[in-house]
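Exercise: predict the fold of this chain.
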Amino acid sequence: MDIKVELLKEYIADYINQHINDFEIDEDKIADSTAIKIVKEISGVLKNEAYDDIDKVEQFVRIFEKYGIDTGACHDY
């Protein structure tokens, strides 16, 4: 662990939190658009007949990881 990097991360996070009210964010629009992208990608995997069930699960995990959704270790088989 690099202490300088950790301190910098903390400083940046604090700075952003202090100034987040200075601009308008449409949280619903961001969440909805990301959710729609995820659902479309999952749908594409489901429609792909080249994948068996195990491959589909692995593709789902990759999609979740791509969007920063933690799947934990339960998919390790």
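Check your answer against the key: The mean pLDDT is 86.
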